[in-house]
Amino acid sequence: xxxxxxxxxxxxxxxxxxxxxxxxxxxxxxxxxxxxxxxxxxxxxxxxxxxxxxxxxxxxxxxxxxxxxxxxxxxxxxxxxxxxxxxxxxxxxxxxxxxxxxxxxxxxxxxxxxxxxxxxxxxxxxxxxxxxxxxxxxxxxxxxxxxxxxxxxxxxxxxxxxxxxxxxxxxxxxxxxxxxxxxxxxxxxxxxxxxxxxxxxxxxxxxxxxxxxxxxxxxxxxxxxxxxxxxxxxxxxxxxxxxxxxxxxxxxxxxxxxxxxxxxxxxxxxxxxxxxxxxxxxxxxxxxxxxxxxxxxxxxxxxxxxxxxxxxxxxxxxxxxxxxxxxxxxxxxxxxxxxxxxxxxxxxxxxxxxxxxxxxxxxxxxxxxxxxxxxxxxxxxxxxxxxxxxxxxxxxxxxxxxxxxxxxxxxxxxxxx
Length: 417
Hints:
Layout: H1 9-25, E1 38-39, E2 49-51, H2 52-68, H3 73-89, E3 100-102, E4 108-109, E5 118-119, H4 120-136, H5 142-157, E6 174-175, H6 194-202, H7 211-216, E7 228-229, E8 232-233, H8 266-283, E9 300-303, E10 306-309, H9 321-325, H10 332-344, E11 351-352, E12 355-356, E13 360-361, E14 366-367, E15 371-372, H11 373-387, H12 390-396, H13 399-407
Antiparallel strand pairs: 1-15, 2-3, 3-4, 5-6, 7-8, 9-10, 11-12, 13-14
Helix pairs in contact: 1-2, 1-11, 2-4, 2-11, 3-5, 4-5, 6-13
């Protein structure tokens, strides 16, 4: 019997996007509509722990779903009104949401002993998503107008400047009403947090001074690099570039094509980062089972020992499918090789109810039974940016985003003259 032919690239990307979108639609919390932090098995009914950043990625996935015809515009609008209504009633701290919240009550769920208040970076991911939604749902009807109004209220309430601790030239990640600034965590680059500074600089209320970007973000000890890894020059970041989510989270909305400032060209930065990871997988200096030109990509994910931020300088043999899949816009040929391997190789163990499992380690025969919102979201969104540029186009059309980029000294074709 002749086996069924494998699907072409278009059909395969359709399948991956749509299956992964189910995480944010079918597995969403029944009260809040927000994205659960994780699914722990194929048949996990879900709990009440909602991921704020993952929910930001999730609302962007809903926009993709409307455009692709998986849900109707009316269905999406209804869901988004539930979500934004819940967010307006939920715990906030100077307008900033916590890392986790209870999907039934809206109360903050502590992420750590001192981290029980506002998380500015997770809030930035949520606002990236909500601004994208606002730009998409631009119709004259009362429902779409109400959605835009709610998003504007949530967005304008974020006190970005509060997180400079009275005007210091840097943003702080956390603030808690019980512990104040005890976490004492500066948001410095290069990493996944660029979107935080862009939104903080462009905010219509509570904006930061650009000095915080240049002296704080760009003043980090791992900001500039310029060294070569596997023969590839890396402009910014730690050795080997760090986990690949650095090239994804801020760039679900920020269009890296032609985006540049005095420090880097961000397409070149992200492409170099992806190329380093592909070379690391192909050359496999650690001798891990399964690595190769069709099996590469390290990022923060579950692993056989718990959870870790994996990268070439911290390699445990754990490949996370989201790393290569969400890199599709940067290097389509290499990403498609990995997508086909993850989907049709590995004895089918990397594919499940919500798409690609979170991670696997062939050296120890381990495949995650889990899916995480922050890893599933970039799969849907970055595949779409490769295919149509939809989310990039929407987010970059927001006047506040344009203002933030201009205030920080960026140039981009999306900014015009």
